[in-house]
Amino acid sequence: MNKEAMQKKYMSYWQRNKKTQGYLLKKDIKNFSYRIIRFFLLFGMCFLILQPIFNKITISFMAEEDLYNAMVISVPEHFTTSNYMLAAKFMNYFKTLCNTFFVSFTIAILQIVVCTVVGYGFARFEFPFKRFWFACVMLVIVIPPQTISSSLHLHFRYFDMFGIMKLITGHTINLRGSALPYYMMSAGCMGLKNGLYIYMIRQFFRNIPKEMEEAAYVDGCSTLKTFIRIMLPDAKPILTSCFLFAFVWQWTDGFYSKMFLGNIKLLSIQLPQIGEQLNKYLTHTLNQATGASVGYTQCVISTGTLMVILPLLILYLFAQKGFVESLSSTGIKM
């Protein structure tokens, strides 16, 4: 834009502002102030969220002497990667990573398949005690799983379906220590956060016009075929979102993993044991008189935490588009 055009635009602006008795200038100042305030609010929120992660990243590359050096704040003076090697050794990282990925992926797929069918049923069909069963879904969301931990332990420790096993063999089956109970709970919509996934999927299907299904029925599609070929393709955003939630929550879960998957090494189980493993390593392997200091123990644990969440960050980078689409397309319709 040349100088003359800029001058014309400048004069035109002030002429329009004069005609509106200063309203145009006040409006522009107000909009500019809102943008400035919004910028600082968003910057502050992002800083509060990201600052602890950046702090853990810098600490993970510090040697032990840097932790107690008041002059070292964010940039390590003695750069080292030994913290990552120790954390990987104590967690048996690569084997544990494969186990965690397999369990999280299979559980997430099973949960989404079952919850999609149930959520679609709640959204589209009428059946006896529908409100009662949906109230039970709400209870699954509200009631924390710790309240039924004793019942779950006894149920799968002395597992018997309708007394058949005890009638045939004379004793019950101990399913504790295997992944089978957790897969059974996930298949029965009682796994980790299953109630939330049912609710989200139900709300999404309720927002889809029923005319789409009616048109499919007119064309000769059955209920199952309509669900698979018409409804599921439209539900990709919400299914992606629910899969990410299921995968991430299972990846970091410690309650169900310790209760049912204790014999399978997972990252969520191995991470809290880093401090104990570090003390054993220093006292028995390196023959130190004392164990690790509190600061150094927390440093190695922080390094292990970063190694646990790194695959989740990579997953989100690839799936963020579908996640954002699900948030924008899912509404609340009662």
How would you summarize what this structure contains?
With 334 residues, this protein is an all-alpha fold. The chain is built from 17 helices and no strands. The chain is flat.
Task: Write up this protein.
Keywords: Cell membrane, Membrane, Transmembrane, Transmembrane helix, Transport. It is found in: Cell membrane. By secondary structure, the protein is mainly α. The chain has one domain: MetI-like fold (Orthogonal Bundle), CATH 1.10.3720. It has 17 helices and no strands. Helix 5 packs across helix 13, helix 6 packs across helix 10 and helix 13 runs antiparallel to helix 17. The model has no long low-confidence stretch (mean pLDDT 83).
Which labels suit this protein?
single chain; transport; MetI-like fold; 334 residues; mainly alpha; transmembrane; MetI-like; 17 helices; MetI-like_sf; cell membrane
Would you give the CATH topology? MetI-like fold
- State the helicity in percent bands: over 70%
Radius of gyration: 28 Å
- Tell me how many strands there are: 0
Series of secondary-structure elements, N-terminal to C-terminal: HHHHHHHHHHHHHHHHH
Sequence stretches where pLDDT stays below 50 over 5 or more residues = none
Number of domains: 1
Measured distance between first and last alpha carbons: 53 Å
Secondary-structure-derived class: mainly alpha
Whole-number average pLDDT?
Answer: 83
**Major sheet description:** none
CATH class: Mainly Alpha
Instruction: Please give the oligomerization state of what you see.
Output: single chain
What fraction of the residues are assigned to beta strands by DSSP? under 5%
Q: What's the CATH H-level homologous superfamily?
A: MetI-like
> Could you say what the CATH architecture is?
Orthogonal Bundle
